[in-house]
Amino acid sequence: MDKNEIYQEITDLLVKLFELDAGDIKPTSRLYEDLELDSIDAVDMVVHLQKRIGRKIRPEIFKSVRTVQDVVDAVEQLIHEG
């Protein structure tokens, strides 16, 4: 899975889970400020991503995540650690 595929997967997930408009989601979109996610939403997203990639996401990785691109980078890192 490359960065574009990961980005698309995350965008699709945000649209499906939180009924966001795909046009509003950009790599620079901030999860909390721009997309108006809260901490419970972030946990939901992590749970879905873990199921999708079949890997456990360590909490310390997601503490530093602020933008959609941060999520893409964190997921890509996990996939390549495997």
**H/E topology pattern:** HHHH
Give the fraction of residues assigned to helices. 55-70%
Mean pLDDT: 92
Question: In DSSP terms, counting alpha (H) and pi (I) runs of 4 or more, how many helices?
Answer: 4
The name of the CATH superfamily reads ACP-like
Q: Radius of gyration, rounded?
A: 11 Å
Topology readout:
Blueprint: H1 3-18, H2 39-53, H3 59-63, H4 68-81
Helix pairs in contact: 1-2, 1-4
Written overview of the protein:
Helix content is 61%, strand content 0%. By secondary structure, the chain is an all-alpha fold. It starts with a helix and ends with a helix. The model has no long low-confidence stretch (mean pLDDT 92).
Please tag this protein with its features:
82 residues; globular; Non-ribosomal Peptide Synthetase Peptidyl Carrier Protein, Chain A; mainly alpha; 4 helices
